[in-house]
């Protein structure tokens, strides 16, 4: 095994836990993130507790994590662009680099005032995506912060909203479906204009008189991660990062069914028109992928 989950990682973990007890663990955006584009449109505020992204006619903005992660549970709280957010997309995702990259996506597609956001999800393995599932939410995501989490372990990826699983992507390597388990990923987020496709299929355009559009982030937290950045003293690899196989218990599966039956608006696994020669193999294995 590599050095990530070794004794020195345990030592780093205990340093991390201690700093948590001292109140400095989650949500220090100065420590965890760097602003990557958009200049003054992206801001870290309140001593690192709050991050805001904004979009105006000239540009959007974005940030990425300083660290790369392999597996773990990665949480963040987001309050989305309020009011008329049509045409805007707030993307929050994990991704590795290169032509055979892996990627796990949340994308929030804005809408006219009073119309529901669409939460678009996708999983790319070895450069190939085409695994979209879309949802409406059971709350207004612009009124308050809600928690969006990715639980990623060697067995499965679970997308959670306020701790409710909305999607599970199982490791089905045994039937030939690639699973992201070899490439570490960074967290990325951006707010940008996508009014050519995002809202009601591109029919509703961004209303620039409402700009700037702003999304708010707080309480970023990565736990049980194999942080491959061994050179960093704030590294927090957990010894359990590789052998955590957490799945859903019966109540968790019931909630997943509730979300998928009431709030799912698109599932590639039931799009026979798109896959006339047969659905992707992972679709046949389980009703609740
Ligand atoms: C490692 O951590 C340092 C300091 O936090 C950061 O600047 C650097 O980009 C990180 N490298 C990777 C590969 O995550
Ligand atoms: C916007 O609202 C319409 C009408 O309620 C809905 O069909 C659509 O899914 C919503 N989201 C987007 C991104 O268009």
TrEMBL record:
<dbReference type="InterPro" id="IPR008263">
    <property type="entry name" value="GH16_AS"/>
</dbReference>
<keyword id="KW-0964">Secreted</keyword>
<dbReference type="InterPro" id="IPR010713">
    <property type="entry name" value="XET_C"/>
</dbReference>
<dbReference type="GO" id="GO:0042546">
    <property type="term" value="P:cell wall biogenesis"/>
</dbReference>
<keyword id="KW-0961">Cell wall biogenesis/degradation</keyword>
<keyword id="KW-0325">Glycoprotein</keyword>
<dbReference type="GO" id="GO:0010411">
    <property type="term" value="P:xyloglucan metabolic process"/>
</dbReference>
<keyword id="KW-0378">Hydrolase</keyword>
<comment type="function">
    <text>Catalyzes xyloglucan endohydrolysis (XEH) and/or endotransglycosylation (XET). Cleaves and religates xyloglucan polymers, an essential constituent of the primary cell wall, and thereby participates in cell wall construction of growing tissues.</text>
</comment>
<feature type="domain" description="GH16">
    <location>
        <begin position="2"/>
        <end position="217"/>
    </location>
</feature>
<keyword id="KW-0326">Glycosidase</keyword>
<dbReference type="InterPro" id="IPR008264">
    <property type="entry name" value="Beta_glucanase"/>
</dbReference>
<keyword id="KW-1015">Disulfide bond</keyword>
<dbReference type="InterPro" id="IPR013320">
    <property type="entry name" value="ConA-like_dom_sf"/>
</dbReference>
<feature type="glycosylation site" description="N-linked (GlcNAc...) asparagine">
    <location>
        <position position="111"/>
    </location>
</feature>
<keyword id="KW-0052">Apoplast</keyword>
<dbReference type="GO" id="GO:0016762">
    <property type="term" value="F:xyloglucan:xyloglucosyl transferase activity"/>
</dbReference>
<comment type="similarity">
    <text>Belongs to the glycosyl hydrolase 16 family.</text>
</comment>
<dbReference type="InterPro" id="IPR000757">
    <property type="entry name" value="Beta-glucanase-like"/>
</dbReference>
<dbReference type="Pfam" id="PF00722">
    <property type="entry name" value="Glyco_hydro_16"/>
</dbReference>
<feature type="active site" description="Proton donor">
    <location>
        <position position="107"/>
    </location>
</feature>
<protein>
    <recommendedName>
        <fullName>Xyloglucan endotransglucosylase/hydrolase</fullName>
        <ecNumber>2.4.1.207</ecNumber>
    </recommendedName>
</protein>
<keyword id="KW-0732">Signal</keyword>
<dbReference type="InterPro" id="IPR044791">
    <property type="entry name" value="Beta-glucanase/XTH"/>
</dbReference>
<feature type="active site" description="Nucleophile">
    <location>
        <position position="103"/>
    </location>
</feature>
<dbReference type="GO" id="GO:0071555">
    <property type="term" value="P:cell wall organization"/>
</dbReference>
<feature type="signal peptide">
    <location>
        <begin position="1"/>
        <end position="26"/>
    </location>
</feature>
<keyword id="KW-0134">Cell wall</keyword>
<dbReference type="GO" id="GO:0004553">
    <property type="term" value="F:hydrolase activity, hydrolyzing O-glycosyl compounds"/>
</dbReference>
<dbReference type="InterPro" id="IPR016455">
    <property type="entry name" value="XTH"/>
</dbReference>
<dbReference type="GO" id="GO:0048046">
    <property type="term" value="C:apoplast"/>
</dbReference>
<keyword id="KW-0808">Transferase</keyword>
<dbReference type="Pfam" id="PF06955">
    <property type="entry name" value="XET_C"/>
</dbReference>
